[in-house]
Design a protein that fits this description.
This protein is of the alpha+beta class and 450 residues long. It contains 19 helices and 14 strands.
């Protein structure tokens, strides 16, 4: 087999420094404008073929590049490359690096391939790693998944061109070069070490930023079944260990954020909007909670102050649905009478660990639970409270609401449980039932006063 000629790249950098020189290998760390990146760095050393459409992190990268490109280097871990040699040179007032790759040795981008691919896509208009789709088409897809600001940019060609130009001017990226790496075993070790590191969950970063401090305080100070033991069952950060003697098991903080979003009458005013987006965009909702500012953050804080009541309502609905109809497939929505149910021990509600007849899919619980945000009232100080006892109201309406969910599941959703969670109409009907009941009670109360 004929050896491939080594390829050499020379490109301008903002700064470069030698981080390591042990006499055998050198490590250079450079910072370059994204616009100066070569469009064809070898990717053979990368464990994954980049695809900016399939990688969720790329959505956030596009958002950063088009809304605050000057922060890209701060938020991004950068790119790591192995090479045969690297040199830093100065030409007048400009700095350059010259890098040589041996493609036979599989050198090139070891980690950060998606970062590289996304910078090519936005700044260089290179669709190689975007399934041939141009930036506008990809941004419109992002917008359909919940990014309103990106949607506004994508729909305005002049604004989009302006933002891309700004990204070309401002976006910088860090690149780390290790050379020489000619041993295939060493290359594999580097690639494995750089690609198998555990990603940091968004909630772990929110925890570090203090976003859960009020939540911890409220849950820790509340009366049983809450308190310190309950607070310590919540998984606030990655790899957190839950006490072995904890009754009820771990509680993902993501689920707490999601039920707060389902109760967010500011973002989902009952009179004009349903909250089925929370089900379809459950992951995005968690990120939006961490990014909430101003009045949005104040409203989430007000909801957090009544979190124990909200959790009690959620668990009560969860436990009651299978009590209303014990024969219904609440756990998975599958109508299979011949399927033998495997015993997996006692079933408990997600938060308070209350024993219940069956597990219940979120798609069944969430539309009913969210309808009760219509009961929330806010005073002049911004504090929230339920106008009537939500658990008592649910007990009065449970048969009607269960029938609504079951009908939607059997007919509109054709037995597909996830379709119930996504179906705007079933959320709207449940919401309408609550609103109608409140109006009826208000009329009766008014008559009794006459």
């Amino acid at each position: 087999m004929t050896a491939t000629t080594p390829v050499r790249f020379r490109f301008r950098v903002v700064r470069a420094f030698k981080a390591l020189d042990d006499g055998t290998r050198k490590k250079w760390v450079i910072v370059a404008h994204a616009r100066d990146l070569p469009p064809n760095l070898p990717l053979d050393a990368n464990a994954r073929v980049p695809n900016v459409l399939k990688n969720q992190t790329c959505i956030e990268q596009r958002d950063t590049l088009l809304t605050r490109p000057e922060d890209f280097q701060i938020f991004n871990g950068g790119i790591v490359c192995t090479a045969t040699e690297i040199e830093s040179k100065q030409d007048g007032n400009q700095h350059f690096v010259e890098v040589m790759f041996d493609q036979d040795a599989g050198q090139g981008v070891v980690n950060g391939g998606h970062t590289y691919a996304q910078l090519l896509h936005v700044v260089h208009d290179n669709t190689t790693y975007a399934d041939g789709k141009n930036l506008k088409a990809v941004l419109l897809k992002d917008a359909r998944n919940g990014s309103e600001e990106i949607g506004r940019i994508a729909l305005d060609d002049e604004l989009l061109a302006e933002r891309v130009a700004r990204a070309r001017d401002k976006a910088q990226v860090q690149i780390e070069f290790v050379a020489p790496v000619v041993d295939s075993e060493m290359l594999a070790q580097i690639a494995r070490a750089r690609n198998l590191s555990q990603s940091v969950d968004a909630t772990a970063l929110q925890n570090l930023a203090g976003k859960f401090d009020l939540m911890k305080s409220v849950l820790g100070a509340a009366a049983a079944p809450f308190g310190a033991a309950f607070r310590d069952r919540v998984v606030w950060k990655t790899n957190q260990e839950i006490p072995e003697d904890a009754v009820g098991g771990a509680i993902p903080v993501k689920l707490i954020i999601q039920i707060l979003a389902l109760m967010n009458a500011r973002q989902y005013p009952p009179e004009t909007r349903v909250a089925n987006d929370v089900y379809s965009r459950a992951g995005v909702v968690v990120r939006e909670f961490g990014e909430a500012e101003g009045d949005d953050e104040k409203y989430y804080n007000a909801l957090t102050k009544i979190l124990p009541e909200i959790i009690k309502l959620y668990d009560h609905i969860y436990a009651t649905l299978p009590e209303v109809d014990p024969t219904y497939p609440w756990a998975d929505g599958k109508f299979d009478s011949e399927k033998k149910k495997k015993s997996s021990g006692p079933t408990l509600t997600p938060f308070t660990g209350r024993p219940c007849v069956s597990k219940v899919a979120s798609a069944f619980v969430w539309p009913i639970f969210s309808a009760f945000r219509a009961l929330l009232a806010q005073n002049d100080e911004g504090d929230l409270k339920f106008r009537v006892d939500p658990i008592s109201l649910f007990n009065d309406m449970k048969n009607e609401m269960v029938t609504t969910v079951q009908t939607a599941h059997r007919h509109q959703a054709h037995g597909v449980v996830h379709q119930v969670g996504k179906d705007k109409e079933v959320w709207l009907r449940l919401q309408g039932q609550i609103e109608m009941e409140l109006k009826l009670r208000d009329r009766l109360a008014a008559k009794s006063k006459k």
